[in-house]
């Protein structure tokens, strides 16, 4: 049976994963409600699959 694991990225990891994407731009996408996130304490986490789907233009 194949497991579907959820991979969460920090803002810095998300920015490093995509060439040309800065930490500031990721923060703006969160602030503007463009990508969903999870806040745990002072850290923000972004689902990797959702981020890639958003950046590829899928809704």
Could you describe the 3D structure shown?
It is built from 3 helices and 3 strands; from the N terminus they run βααββα. By secondary structure, it is an alpha+beta fold. The protein has one domain. The chain has a 3-stranded antiparallel β-sheet. α1 crosses α2 (23-31). The radius of gyration is 12 Å and the shape is globular. The mean pLDDT is 91.
Features of the shown structure:
single chain, alpha+beta, 41% helix
What's the alpha carbon Rg, rounded to whole Å? 12 Å
The main pleated sheet reads as: 3 strands, antiparallel
> Low-confidence parts, pLDDT < 50 over ≥5 residues?
none
Structural class computed from helices and strand pairing: alpha+beta
How many β-strand stretches? 3
Q: How many H/I helices?
A: 3
Shape: globular
Could you spell the SSE succession in H and E letters?
Answer: EHHEEH
How many domains, in number, for the residues? 1
Q: What helical percentage do the residues reach?
A: 40-55%
Query: Numbering strands along the chain, what is their spatial order in the largest sheet?
Result: 1-3-2
Distance between the termini: 28 Å
Mean pLDDT: 91
Strand content: 15-25%
């Amino acid at each position: 049976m194949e497991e579907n694991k959820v991979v969460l990225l920090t803002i810095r990891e998300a920015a490093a994963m995509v060439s040309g994407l800065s930490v500031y731009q990721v923060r703006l996408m969160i602030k503007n409600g463009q990508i969903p996130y999870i806040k745990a304490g002072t850290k923000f986490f972004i689902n990797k699959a959702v981020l890639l789907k958003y950046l590829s233009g899928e809704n």
